[in-house]
Amino acid sequence: MTETSLPELEAILLVGGRGTRLRPLTLGTPKPLLPTAGVPFLAHQLTQARQAGVRRIVFATSYRAEMFREAFGDGSAFGLTLEYMTEETPLGTGGAIRNAAQALTCGPDAPVLVLNGDILSGHDTADQVARHIARRAAVTLHLTEVEDPSRFGCVPTDDEGRVTAFLEKTPNPVTNRINAGCYVFTRSVIDTIPQGEVVSVERETFPGLIESGALVLGYADSAYWLDVGTPAAFVKGSRDLVLGRLASPALPGPVGELLALPGAVISPEAKVDGGTTVGARAVVESGAQVSGSVLGDDSVVCSGATVTDSVVGPGARIASGAVLRDAVIGDGAVVGPGNELLAGSRLWPGVTLPECAIRFSSDV
Ligand code: GDD
Ligand code: MG
C-alpha cells in the first residue's frame, strides 16, 4: 500500500441507500451495517480507509440514520474522526456528497475520497489519491472490469486514462470497465454540485464534468472488487473475507475455512467450511453441513441439515434434513424439516415454514 503524504485526508461515505435488493436482511438493518465476516460491513471499509491515510470521514446517511452513530460513535475505536450528516429525504448520490461536504474541513484544492458504502476492494486507495494529485484531475474514478457491465456505470477511457463518457446502467455497454464506487474529488468540484437538490453523481455530475472538458480520470486495476448489493454477492463477500481472498484488518479472527464468533457451538460431527461465519451463540448440530454461508447470532442448524452459500438470520432455526442453497432466511424464521429452499429463495423474518412445505425436485 502506498504511503500517502496527506495525513489529514478526509472522506465521505455514502450510506443512505435502502438496500432493497438485500431484503429481508435490510428490513431492520441498513446494508452497510449487516454483519459480514463477524463485524458490521462498514468496519472493513473503515479500517481499509484508515490504512490508506484517511483520518476523518463524514457519513452521508438517510435510511435509518441513527443506527450508524450507534454502531461507530466518534470513530476513535478505528483511529478515525467520524461525523454524521443526514438527509431528511434522500438526495441521491450527488446531492448526498454535496450535503456531507458541509462537514469537511479541508480547503478547495484538497483531495476528498468518496466511497460507496457497499464495496469491498483491495485496490491501492493511497495510490489512487497520489495519481489524482499528480495529474491535477477534477475527479479520479476507481475502475474495475466485470462480466456484466450493464448493472453498473460503464466508463470508457482514452489511452491516457481520461474518462470519455459515463454511461450509468446502460443496456449497451461499450466496455467491461465500470465505475467501482471509489472517487477522489478535488474539493472545489464538490462545491459545484447544487445544494439541497436531488442529484445523481453518476447520471448528472460525471457526464456534466466530462462534457465541460474537466479532467475526469480513470484509475483502473484488477485487484479484488465486489459490490455486496445482492444476497449472492453479500454472502460471497463474507466468505471471501473469512477465506482471506481479501485481507481485512477488521476480521475478528484468523483467516480460515470458518470463523466462529464467541459462544458458537459447533458439533465435532458437523462439517463447517468454505468461509462460513458462525454467529455468536449459534449452534450447528451433528451431521449438519454448512458451507460458504453466514449464520446469524443465536441461529440453529439442526442435525442433518445442509446450508450452502446462504444467509441464516439471527435467531433463525433450520430443522433436521432441511436444505438451503443460495437462500436468505430472515431473522427468527423457522425452516421446518424436509424443506428445500434453493436458487435465491427468501423467507421473511419470523415466518415458520411447516414440514416439507417447499421442495424443489428434479425427478417430477
Ligand atoms: N446518503 C445517500 N443518499 N446515499 C445514497 C443515496 C442517497 O440518496 N442513494 C444511494 N446511496 C448510497 C448507497 O447506500 C450506496 O452506498 C451507494 O450510494 C451506491 O448506491 P447503490 O444503490 O449501491 O448503487 P449501485 O450499486 O446500483 O450503483 C453504484 O455503484 C456501482 C458500483 O458498485 C453506481 O455508482 C454505479 O455507477 C457503480 O458502478
Ligand atoms: Mg451498490
UniProtKB/TrEMBL annotation:
- Domain Nucleotidyl transferase: residue ranges: 11-240
Q: What is this protein called?
A: GDP-mannose pyrophosphorylase
Q: Which family does it belong to?
A: Belongs to the transferase hexapeptide repeat family.
Q: Which domain of life is it from?
A: Bacteria
Please give the CDD domains that the UniProt record associates with this protein: NTP_transferase
Q: Which residues form the Mannose-1-phosphate guanyltransferase C-terminal domain?
A: 256-336
Q: Which InterPro entries match?
A: GMPPB_C, Mannose-1P_guanyltransferase, NTP_transferase_dom, Nucleotide-diphossugar_trans
